TrEMBL record:
Belongs to the glutamine synthetase family. InterPro entries: Gln_synth/guanido_kin_cat_dom, Gln_synth_cat_dom, Glutamine_Synthetase. GO terms for molecular function: ATP binding; glutamine synthetase activity. The lineage of its organism: Eukaryota, Metazoa, Ecdysozoa, Arthropoda, Hexapoda. SMART domains: Gln-synt_C. It comes from the Eukaryota. It is found in: Cytoplasm. Keywords: ATP-binding, Cytoplasm, Ligase, Nucleotide-binding. Its main location: cytoplasm. Gene3D superfamilies: Glutamine synthetase/guanido kinase, catalytic domain. Its EC number is 6.3.1.2. GO terms for cellular component: cytoplasm. This is glutamine synthetase.
């Protein structure tokens, strides 16, 4: 994508991750304002992977296999929670091409960028959810991840 940049927030504990993302977005908007530049978090369609908000997540008590199993049963819930339009924005980018997963089919893999959930290395405990759209509400994403993986809800 032309002029697409990526930045990291964290590590953060609990809901502070969502707070930190909102503060970082505010700071980014203030910085670019000084230079007359516009920022958008819209996941623009194109012949590329669009803009996502890949979310890394782990807990001391969590085991990746159990969390992945729970996430696999809640694909529709997560797609709806992961963008402000209930999944409509994610239709622009989750095509199954260009290092994105399919919006309709859950998948996971080790070191695979074309899946819903990526495990960085076999045996490592954190998950990367690659489905959230760049314009996602971080509180909704945290809520969906926590209620599914910890509460099986």
């Amino acid at each position: 994508m032309p002029s697409q940049w990526e930045y990291q927030v964290g590590p953060s504990i609990g809901i502070k991750a969502a707070d930190d993302l909102w503060v970082s977005r505010y700071i980014l908007h203030r910085i670019v304002e000084e230079f007359g530049i516009c920022v958008t978090f819209h996941p623009i369609r194109g012949d590329w992977n669009g803009a996502g908000a890949h979310t890394n997540y782990s807990t001391a008590a969590m085991r990746a296999e159990e969390a992945i199993e729970r996430l696999s049963k809640k694909q529709e819930k997560h797609i709806k929670a992961y963008d402000p339009r209930g999944g409509e924005y994610n239709k622009l980018r989750l095509s199954g091409s260009h290092e994105t997963s399919s919006i309709t089919k859950f998948s996971w893999g080790v070191a695979d960028r074309g899946v819903s959930i990526r495990v960085a290395e076999s045996g490592k405990g954190f998950l990367e959810d690659r489905r959230p759209a760049s314009n996602m509400d971080p509180y909704a994403v945290c809520n969906a991840l926590l209620t599914t993986t910890l509460l099986d809800d």
